[in-house]
């Protein structure tokens, strides 16, 4: 959306002068283009002088905004000749830019340079220009963007020519003005001149002689510039090979800088948030006009789905800065109000909105837990499009409420115009005065729902991972039939979260043990790695421990067999060096993926107390330490790659198996199997949630019953204490019962002791007289009785026998 002119400044040398590209179909779009460059210039000022890894901006007055030297003949000394001059520019599709300077000499005469470019040669024309500039300038003399339509032909019967009529460009938001004319005061930026882009260098195969250390130096330069932006609270949002340029020699990786870093670097990551002229704001495009393999999924596209055909939009009674939005099916809504309902009344809609708002408030704790896990599809900070209106999400319920997806959004709503621009609305509710009236609830029919995910630091890190991989992959000698489609196939596999989880655990373990061994043995030779144990568990049935070389080779073989064109990358890009390949792929994985992608969240390899990889937490991560950590890792890899033990750790080409493509049928069956496992896991999780909810309800009931019993007990104690005589009588009765109980227990003990002693004496006598007598309770043979009557002492004078 801009022109870049190669110019030579008076004192700055060769520079790049960037101007807005004012050739849109409507002036409204031209207003957005001008504001877009104004936002870029403000962002450039925020990081000016911080880091040379960003292309440097020249701090000079904009000749389109200030009264400057302007346009002069080449043989005129600008330090001597300083007339009053204003510079204007004209745009036309298919034609080059045209500049002119309106000059007033010391005698008051007005002229145009070049002569005849503009029909402005009367003193009153200059006065009109001065009055416009004075009325629309800041205290520093900076004039607001203005537009001078071509002079209209005089009406029939009128004397003289029509006077010049300047207008503020921002007025085009309110009314359409002619597009043919000259512009005054447009924003512009002056950068250092860069000779070419990284894409040009790669296309011309200038990187074929680079080592992996040089590629890491390039990645380090890019990350250093990116870290500068992130530390300033900015995003790049458009990091690709076309936005990395070189100054001077392209063969030196230290000469590359990041450009176009301020165009999409709003504080919130959304273009056009910045207010211009008080209350009129133009926002950026709603759809991505350019798709690139360097973009993260959330940057590449919006996501359409049909989760409902009706939206309920309600104004919050106590919060003028928020709207309640609920999306669901009309049949579900009408069914809740009764089978005969056709059009809900305002009172019914108010009641439903209050129910949703209360349920959303109760779900706050669950929403926080869902956000921590990182699995929510729509998150706070994302946007959602309903018809032509775009809402910024503040919070969203983790699960449907009465079949509706309920969220709280910002009251500032934007509107899509011609599917190209998004304009912020000052009064969203005013768009529905005829339908909504004075009601606080609006019912909107929906053809579809579009989710627009926010960009974050993780978005930029994804682009760094792709750039690093592409720079090494593209340096290989040109092969017949080699196209970017091959790189896209490799990238698609490595960026797949399922593939990442299949490889990540083994990769992290191999990487950690390899670095540990190398750091502990700095003088070791590569051939000794064949005998050094890796510290990893051996396979079942193996007789010997796994060496670090064998562990690295095994993992690399898994990569070359499962990722298309990974073997070509290893052989041509890394010259068969499996150690550098493993560490580099680990770095790429850490950029492409987020920690929320890791399935085994609770497990920490090697007892690490803090997970360091991947660098970003999730797709909404705004932690500036992520890019700083990636920069530190790139520098550490650059140091490791200079160690001889890693440089010499190469595998034989014959030991690197080729890619094993999976048939379409096998892929479909595997996907069906995984979907079945996922369904079972979700069903099990749902059952556990139901059981947990049941236990929670039972726990609440038990606690309530316990509290009731405690209150009753305390009340009884209070009554007994306050009862006076009754209390004393009750205590006396209780004492008597205690005394009675003690006496009764003593009597029972004495009786039982006496009975036990008598039974013991009788048993001793029985054993002495009849040694073969049966034990009491034992069956006697030939007797029908199961019990034996106990022996009794014979009467006096009778024989014992």
Q: Mind summarizing the main beta sheet?
A: 11 strands, antiparallel
Strand segment count: 23
In DSSP terms (H or I, runs of 4 or more residues), the helix count works out at: 19
Could you tell me the strand content as a percent range? Answer: 5-15%
Percent range of helical residues: 25-40%
- Supply the helix-strand structural class: alpha+beta
The overall pLDDT average reads 78
From the alpha carbons, calculate the radius of gyration and give it in angstroms.
Answer: 42 Å
Span between N and C termini?
A: 129 Å
- The gross shape turns out to be flat
Task: List descriptors.
single chain, 801 residues, alpha+beta, eleven-stranded antiparallel sheet, six-stranded antiparallel sheet, 19 helices, 23 strands, 14% strand, disordered C terminus
Question: Can you characterise this structure?
Answer:
- The protein is of the alpha+beta class.
- It is 39% helix and 14% strand.
- The chain contains 19 helices and 23 strands.
- Strands 13, 14, 15, 16, 17, 18, 19, 20, 21, 22 and 23 form an 11-stranded antiparallel β-sheet that branches. A 6-stranded antiparallel β-sheet has the order 5-4-3-8-6-7. Strands 1-2-9 form a 3-stranded antiparallel β-sheet.
- A hairpin with a 3-residue loop joins strand 1 and strand 2.
- Helix 4 (212-231) packs antiparallel against helix 10, helix 4 runs antiparallel to helix 16 (625-640) and helix 10 (457-473) packs antiparallel against helix 15 (578-592).
- The longest helix is centred in the last third of the chain and has 59 residues, at 664-722.
- The model is unreliable at 153-162, 266-289, 369-375, 602-609 and 771-801 (pLDDT under 50).
